[in-house]
């Protein structure tokens, strides 16, 4: 279950991953779950939030740009990224951003 | 329909709005649609992406921090924010971030 991530006081980083899927499952969910499990073990991981309707939005939060770089280069994640490009996603956009301020209830 | 926002070359700003809803509709959808319509008319608005499952995630993109400030202070939006706090959202978090890099297919 996805809940609002309990991130620390800014600054920290957010990777906004927006996507539209292709037809069919093709092992997507299993890998998606595995990637969350794996991301949680990475140094500098702060949390992740996810929702999908026509559009899927996953925002992961990181302590440092370096943490994001290491996660992007993770072997198992590289394999998933390859399948993402070739099979699972019709289109996607990754945006790397620095959270400067936050508030909420 | 929500599609991947056609944002310009970074830098630009992203407001990541994550929320969980209360029970019941209470006029939420009508106001949510109106807020998108209104945001699109604001100076500096670049696009918006949205999806909801248990968690709702709406990311709006803006040219400048000043554009975000003006949108937050919009009279009709202030009214909606008040109802959001008192009626529609069980919890929410707003994160204001600067997009430094993006890529995709």
Structural class of chain A: alpha+beta
% residues in beta strands of chain A: 35-45%
Name the shape of chain A in a single word.
globular
Query: How many helical elements of chain A?
Result: 3
* H/E series of chain A: EHEEHHE
Strand arrangement, largest sheet of chain A? 2-3-1-4
Residue runs with pLDDT of under 50 for 5 or more positions of chain A: none
**Which chains have the largest interface?**
A-B, 39 and 39 residues
Q: Percent range for helical residues of chain A? A: 25-40%
Overall pLDDT metric of chain A: 96
Alpha-carbon distance between the termini of chain A? 20 Å
How many strands appear in the DSSP assignment of chain A?
A: 4
Sheet with the most strands, sense and barrel status of chain A: 4 strands, antiparallel
Rg of chain A, nearest Å: 14 Å
- Assembly of the depicted chains: homodimer
SSE blueprint and pairings:
2 copies of one chain form a homodimer.
Chain A (H helix, E strand, L loop, with lengths): L11 E10 L6 H12 L5 E8 L3 E7 L2 H8 L2 H14 E16 L1
Antiparallel strand pairs in A: 1-3, 1-4, 2-3
Helix pairs in contact in A: 1-3
Compose a concise summary of this entry.
Chain A has helices spanning 28-39, 65-72, 75-88, and strands spanning 12-21, 45-52, 56-62, 89-104.
Write out key terms for the chains shown.
4 strands, homodimer, 3 helices, alpha+beta, globular, 4-stranded antiparallel sheet, 105 residues
Describe this structure in words.
The structure is a homodimer of 105-residue chains. By secondary structure, chain A is of the alpha+beta class. In chain A, 32% of the residues lie in helices and 39% in strands. Chain A is built from three helices and four strands. Chain A has a four-stranded antiparallel beta sheet. In chain A, a hairpin with a 3-residue loop joins strand 2 and strand 3. In chain A, helix 1 packs antiparallel against helix 3. Chains A and B meet through strand 1, strand 2, strand 3 and strand 4 of A and strand 1, strand 2, strand 3 and strand 4 of B.
């Amino acid at each position: 279950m996805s809940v609002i991530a309990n991130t620390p006081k800014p600054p920290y980083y957010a990777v906004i991953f927006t996507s539209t899927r292709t037809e069919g499952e093709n092992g997507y969910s299993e890998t998606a779950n595995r990637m969350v499990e794996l991301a949680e073990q990475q140094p500098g991981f702060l949390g992740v939030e996810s929702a999908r309707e026509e559009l899927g939005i996953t925002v992961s939060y990181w302590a440092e740009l370096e943490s994001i770089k290491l996660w992007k280069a993770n072997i198992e994640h590289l394999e998933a990224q390859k399948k993402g490009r070739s099979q699972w996603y019709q289109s996607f956009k990754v945006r790397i951003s620095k959270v400067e301020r936050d508030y909420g209830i």
